[in-house]
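Appendix B. One record, verbatim.
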Amino acid sequence: MNARTDAELLTPPRTSPSAHHLSNAHLDALEEETIFILREVAAAFERPTLLFSGGKDSLVMLKCAEKAFGVGRIPYPLLMIDTGHNFHEVTDFRDSRAQELQAELIVRSVEDSMARGTVRLAHPGESRNVHQSVTLLEAIDEFRFDALIGGARRDEEKARAKERIFSHRDSFGQWQPKAQRPELWTLFNTRLQQGEHFRVFPISNWTELDVWQYIDRENIALPSLYYAHQRAVVERKGLLVPVTELTPVRDGETMEQRTVRFRTVGDITCTCPVESDAATAADIVIETLAADVSERGATRMDDKTSEASMEKRKKDGYF
């Protein structure tokens, strides 16, 4: 064997053509699984719906649905449960994307549940995020949905990691983690009794990194909040809290202008940005590779609780 020259040793190896192919093969496999599940739902259920918030995970699912069925042919409506405290950039984007795909969009509001008296806040400033489960169950009853497709992923949170792809809910909308059905060899048991339904999570096996790599590869448009921008924030309990009418500066806090982006978007009262200069999906891929805290752990005030608390919320009907 010939010894390598000093020049050869100092020259970084070229990326082989197969390296990019392997990266795409990984995303192709995830996309294929997601499309299979989306089609399985369409075939197995009478009244399914796809939960669509306008966030990155639901936009990835919607891209896969577009590939599975085509523009104007998605066989189930899109459903959003609106807390009334959502970022307008996200709800505006939600509306425009649904229109582009010629998809039916159903919006049901927590404020309507409050008017009916089915949701009661402990105080006016309480986050409405947890109360979405009440409005969701009311929408299920209204439209008789038998399957709800959601964008939750197992890497987000420990309680979510316990859930099956086809997650059974009883006639009260409750999840029983000890009574889940086995899912061997992608064989899904979709049998339901009267009044029961399924929550289906087609991107369960994706990670945050997978999502951003797919967004980058497919050039998926997102709400501007996901990318670096200037925003007024305060530091509170180790998080950067956006300064808004709903989340004002408290006594003793100092408002600052910082360059931030949101890793996840939701109710304004419980969603925080992170400091970042990432202006493109490719930039965020690099940031995500170095991240050592999950997106929810780093950005959600309502997730600063125990695993048992999230599990209880899911048993009560939360996403």
